[in-house]
Specification:
The structure is a single chain. The two termini are 19 Å apart. The chain has a four-stranded antiparallel sheet. Helix 1 packs parallel to helix 7 and helix 4 packs parallel to helix 6. It has 246 residues and is of the alpha+beta class.
Length: 246
């Protein structure tokens, strides 16, 4: 079953282009958009072509925040939306870097192979394929943005294969907390109805660290969080599976 964190991260990635479009919008847009969905999809495709221009404008806006700054000013941008994008992008990229640095296995290494050494050449090819595995998080990728980070983190939540160690319970909890907070900010910016993700105290304590327990509800599921040192979390689906096993 898809986890709450995976749902939040997928939602973030799917809405990232809509958030970028708000940079130049004069009034907040609502979801779903008016008109046919095919028209909206065509508009999104057109917007992708202009992302590079928006990036340049955003950089210029950050450099020219004061009224006294010299030079030609770019088209007016919505500064609160720009701040939201900048902050969320920084948080998601930093989290992806952190998680990848902890769970991503280094690529295989191989010694140089002579044309006559077939075994060494085979190992070298395996090493090259392992290093180029598209599932890897690239710290030095040419384009880094919040949508890419959200999709990679979503894959790590659900996927069990690839050049990675399994996520720990604490890493699951940390990704879930960041994803829930980021989704709330994006939904507010887009004017979408927010998921019920505000934590509600349970009035009970964690057996492992005696921290207070809270729960959140999203998309028909719920998650229990420990607010103490262990930071553990349990989804409703996991708890039900445990009861069935018992």
């Amino acid at each position: 079953m898809t986890s709450t964190a995976h749902t939040d991260l997928t939602h973030i990635a799917d809405r990232w282009t809509d958030l970028r479009e708000l940079l130049e919008a004069q009034t907040p847009r609502t979801w779903p958009p008016a008109g046919r969905m095919s028209d909206h999809q065509r508009d999104l495709d057109d917007a992708l072509d202009g992302i590079e221009v928006v990036d340049q404008q955003a950089a210029a806006e950050r450099a020219e925040r004061t009224a006294l700054a010299p030079g030609v000013r770019p088209a007016p941008l919505r500064v609160p939306i720009l701040d939201t994008i900048t902050e969320l992008e920084g948080e998601l990229l930093a989290l992806a870097d952190e998680i990848a640095g902890s769970i991503q296995r280094p690529a295989f290494t191989a010694r140089s192979a002579s044309p006559a050494d077939e075994i060494a050449r085979s190992v070298a090819m395996m090493s090259a394929r392992d290093a180029a595995d598209p599932r890897r998080w690239k710290f030095n990728m040419a384009v880094r943005n919040g949508a890419l980070a959200a999709r990679w983190l979503a894959d790590r939540i659900e996927a069990t294969d690839g050049p990675f160690r399994p996520l720990s319970d604490n890493q699951h909890a940390r990704i879930g907390q960041v994803a829930a907070a980021a989704r709330r900010r994006i939904d507010r910016a887009l004017g979408e109805p927010e998921a019920d993700t505000d934590p509600t105290p349970l009035g009970q304590t964690c057996r492992a660290c005696e921290g207070g327990l809270t729960y959140t509800r999203t998309d028909g599921d719920f998650t229990i969080w420990c607010q103490g040192e262990c930071g553990a979390s349990w989804t409703g689906a996991n708890l039900l599976r445990g009861l069935n096993v018992a």
